[in-house]
Every structure is written in structure tokens, then in C-alpha cells.
Amino acid sequence: MPAEEGYTEALEAATSPRPTVLVVEDEPNIRELVCLHLGLENYECVQSGDGEGALKLARSQHFDLVILDVMLPGLDGVTVCKAIRRDSENPDVPVLMLTARREESDKVVGLESGADDYLTKPFGVRELVARARCFAAGLGRSSTRRERPPNRSAISTSKWIRRGGACASATRTSS
User: Fold this and answer.
1) Where are the domains of the chain?
2) What pLDDT score does 94 carry?
3) How far, CA to CA in Å, does 95 sit from each of 2, 22, 67, 90, 163?
4) What is the C-alpha separation between 146 and 139, in angstroms, rounded?
């Protein structure tokens, strides 16, 4: 009965849990834009406008992805990222930094703080959503996170590869 199979698949898709994303951005317009487009892709967004609030949420809830601005009131994004890795319910959650800080040194600091990806503003919404999809599919995660020394001195460089509509990440780690 193909009609019943299609109904069952649709029911399972409708009742399966939606991936939950913590969006940490102090600019309300950017935060709402990100959540609007992620919502259209069936993501549930939890929003925070500052570092302290984000850290409280990360310590009390499970998230499938964290999108984190660097320049935040109170605790900055680098400090929040380190704290998420060290002391939260989400130590292995993918973290994508979304920031206006575009210098190479800023990117290195962000990645060394534990971020898995770094996207600079202004950004393309389609690119952001594509990266979120890759993380939600379990791709793009650095498999070396558990192998890194406690001081996180290793630098992970990810390259995104798209083949046949699927995302993958090629990660090179050097110390």
C-alpha cells in the first residue's frame, strides 16, 4: 500500500524532533533574520542577545548547533565558546561563529577557542542555512575535538565540499 507508506513517512517527519539552534546575536534584526530562515528549514531557534544569557541556556538545555557572534555585551563570543566546551550540557555541540571580525587573527582565535566554523558579516543567508544543514546532518564536525590537548593548541582547518547535493568536511589538524 504505497499511499499508507507515504502517509507514515510524512507523519514520522512531522512528529520527529526539530533540530534546536541557539542563536546568540546582540543585533535583534540579524538574530530575527537568522531565526526566520532557519525556521523555514524546520529548525527551532532559541535566542539570546548577550553572552551571559547564552551561557545560562547552554548550561541548561541541549542544542544541535550554536550560532555565536563574537562581539557581545558582557561575555564575548570567544569566552562563551570556551565555556560551552568546558562546562555545559553541550560540550560537543557544533559552534558556528557569525561575526563582523574578519581578520585572519580573529578567525584563528575563534577556531582555537573551540568554534567549528567561522562566517563573517555581511553573510549570505543561503550559505548560513547550508552550513547549518551540514552540521545538522553530522557533517562538518571535527573528529579531532576529543583528541586535542586541553590547551586546544591544535588548529583545525575545515574545507567545505559539496558533491551531489550533500555536504562534507575535509579537516586538517596541525599542532
Assistant:
1) 2-142
2) 96
3) 40, 9, 6, 10, 23
4) 16
List the grid coordinates of 142. Answer: 571535527
pLDDT at 77: 97
User: Cell numbers of 8, please?
Assistant: 507514515
Could you tell me the fold of the domain covering 2-142?
A: Rossmann fold (3.40.50)
- Which triple of cell numbers denotes residue 56? 545560562
87 contacts: CB under 8 Å, gap ≥ 6:
59
At residue 172, the pLDDT reads: 44
Cell of residue 90, nine digits: 553541550
Residues with pLDDT less than 50, the chain = 141-166, 168-175
| DSSP state for residue 173 in the 8-state scheme | E
**DSSP letter, residue 62:** -
Written as nine digits, the cell of 145 is: 575535538
> In whole angstroms, what is the distance from residue 123 CA to residue 40 CA?
18
| CA distance readout (Å), 122 to 15, 45, 48, 119, 163 | 35, 21, 20, 9, 26
Dmax (CA) of the chain = 59
CA separation for the pair 23, 91 (Å, rounded): 16
